[in-house]
């Protein structure tokens, strides 16, 4: 399976329409890939709080339209990162979009853990309520976003829902870059799953982004890691390695909290 993480540079000087066109071109260029992943909130910026309300869009808005066409043109599964979703019947949400190779919107995931404590996303966005996975011919994807990385219970729930490849778009700041790498490796090792963690580059809302998108294997080893600028990180991974790791080192069988203990005869 060939996967690409498009570590898009996001700045305050480029309009959402310009960035959508640029992201679309990058996705269309990934013909031959199986899965492509974009970062969190790239159309507006993860820290560009002032732009969210005016730039929020529905699930069939301009970003979804552009990404659907790009996925179809490239013939890839596309995790299009996330948008500021305007729900006509509720608050805004930080919502991820997953398209199949025909360009059909197959899954959405509203981010559960909102960053900012008493400001920013934590007060501007509603919290998602659903654990979201997506079966594909390459394995089952588990969807999470950025700050979710700090909450291992979410990833245990994704594991129990069948996730084998964890896709994590982010807008993670440079000042906590070490946490980004550490947590991505921990989630892969805990769940014995691949982690595909795609971050933004650049600076927006006055916050420098860490970049350093990475792919981690089910043993917690970094397969590939990007630098700090805009970059397309492409890797070959073996989805069968997930089942092999879980069979060779069956630590998940010994879980005692949250699920019944296994019966050994």
From TrEMBL:
One Pfam short name: CN_hydrolase
Listed InterPro entries: C-N_Hydrolase, C-N_Hydrolase_sf, UPF0012_CS
Segments forming domain CN hydrolase: 1-239
Cited CDD domains: nitrilase_5 (cd07583)
Domain of life: Bacteria
Keyword Nucleotide-binding applies: no
Keywords: Hydrolase
Gene3D superfamilies, per database record: Carbon-nitrogen hydrolase
PROSITE patterns: CN_HYDROLASE, UPF0012
One annotated GO molecular function: hydrolase activity
PANTHER family xref list: DEAMINATED GLUTATHIONE AMIDASE, NITRILASE-RELATED
Family listed: Belongs to the carbon-nitrogen hydrolase superfamily. NIT1/NIT2 family.
Record protein name field: Carbon-nitrogen family hydrolase
Protein species of origin: Peterkaempfera bronchialis
């Amino acid at each position: 399976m060939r996967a690409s993480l498009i570590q898009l540079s996001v700045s305050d000087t480029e309009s959402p329409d310009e960035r959508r066109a640029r992201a679309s071109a990058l996705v269309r260029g990934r013909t031959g890939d199986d899965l492509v992943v974009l970062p969190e909130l790239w159309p507006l910026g993860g820290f560009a709080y002032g732009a969210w309300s005016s730039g929020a869009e529905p699930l069939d808005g301009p970003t979804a339209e552009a990404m659907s066409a790009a996925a179809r043109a490239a013939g890839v599964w596309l995790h299009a990162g996330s948008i500021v979703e305007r729900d006509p019947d509720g608050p805004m949400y930080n919502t991820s979009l997953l398209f199949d190779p025909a360009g059909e919107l197959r899954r959405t995931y509203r981010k559960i853990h909102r960053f900012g404590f008493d400001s920013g996303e934590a007060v501007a966005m509603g919290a998602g309520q659903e654990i979201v996975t997506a079966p594909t011919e390459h394995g089952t994807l588990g969807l999470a976003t950025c700050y979710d990385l700090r909450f291992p219970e979410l990833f245990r729930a994704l594991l129990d829902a069948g996730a084998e490849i964890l896709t994590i778009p982010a807008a993670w700041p440079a000042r906590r870059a070490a946490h980004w790498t550490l947590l991505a490796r921990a989630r892969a090792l805990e769940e014995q799953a691949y982690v595909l963690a795609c971050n933004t580059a650049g600076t927006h809302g006055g916050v420098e982004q860490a970049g350093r998108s990475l792919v981690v294997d089910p043993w917690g080893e970094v397969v590939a890691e990007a630098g700090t600028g805009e970059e397309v990180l492409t890797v070959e991974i073996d989805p069968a390695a997930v089942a092999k790791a879980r069979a060779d080192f069956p630590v998940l069988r010994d879980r005692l909290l949250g699920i019944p203990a296994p019966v050994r005869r």
